[in-house]
């Protein structure tokens, strides 16, 4: 199964949210809740620049690899950019993906492209690069800034 770490199907997209995902709440009510959060929450009272630094620390500065995982499949693994050892971990171990699940305001501020804006992508096989690119929408592809190909040598 191909997996892209920044796609979380169980989380509603705030831009396309409808009455079916928030029963009984209109967009005006949701905006009022968001405004109340900004006044009452110590986190949302922080300047946007500080919140963005926190988000970047939680989601960014990683090298994400699409690794082979069976026939025509890949799994995303990663490591911090400053880690030189080839010690890949699951995306959930290196990125705070759960942060976007805490509340809709955080999900809205983080947006669907932060993982592309603040990380680099790495590949060991061209097939995995192709599979990953086929799974992304055009806006996600536009946000990719760094792609590296690493050849893995087997010792024999």
Briefly summarize what is shown:
Residues 1-25 are annotated as: Disordered. This protein has 8 helices and 5 strands, in the order αααβββαααβααβ.
Overall description:
- The protein is α/β, with parallel strands linked by helices and 156 residues long.
- The chain has one domain (27-149).
- The chain is 39% helix and 15% strand.
- It has eight helices and five strands.
- The chain has helices at 27-40, 42-45, 48-59, 91-94, 104-110, 114-117, 126-135, 138-143; strands spanning 62-68, 74-80, 89-90, 120-123, 147-149.
- It has a five-stranded mixed sheet with strand order 3-2-1-4-5.
- Strand 2 and strand 3 form a beta hairpin.
- The radius of gyration is 18 Å and the shape is elongated.
- The model is unreliable at 1-15 and 17-21 (pLDDT under 50).
- Residues 1-25 are annotated as: Disordered.
Q: Which series of helices and strands comes N to C?
A: HHHEEEHHHEHHE
Number of domains: 1
Q: What share of the residues does DSSP label as strand, in percent? A: 5-15%
Quaternary class: single chain
Estimate the helix proportion, in percent.
25-40%
* Overall mean confidence score, pLDDT: 78
Main sheet attributes: strand count, strand direction, barrel closure? 5 strands, mixed
Number of helices: 8
Rg, please? 18 Å
Distance between the termini: 31 Å
Region (Disordered): 1-25
């Amino acid at each position: 199964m191909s997996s892209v770490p920044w796609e979380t199907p169980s989380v509603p997209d705030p831009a396309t949210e409808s009455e079916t995902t928030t029963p009984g709440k209109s967009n005006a009510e949701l905006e009022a809740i968001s405004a109340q959060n900004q006044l009452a929450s110590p986190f949302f009272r922080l300047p946007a620049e500080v919140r963005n630094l926190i988000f970047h620390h939680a989601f960014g500065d990683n090298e994400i690899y699409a690794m082979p995982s069976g026939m025509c499949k890949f799994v995303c693994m990663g490591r911090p950019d400053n880690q030189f050892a080839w010690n890949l971990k699951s995306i959930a171990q290196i990125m705070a993906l759960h942060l976007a699940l805490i509340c809709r305001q955080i999900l809205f501020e983080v947006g669907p492209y932060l993982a592309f804006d603040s990380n680099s992508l790495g590949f060991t096989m061209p097939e995995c690069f192709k599979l990953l690119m086929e799974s992304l929408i055009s806006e996600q592809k536009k946000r990719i800034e760094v792609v590296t190909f690493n050849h893995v040598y087997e010792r024999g």
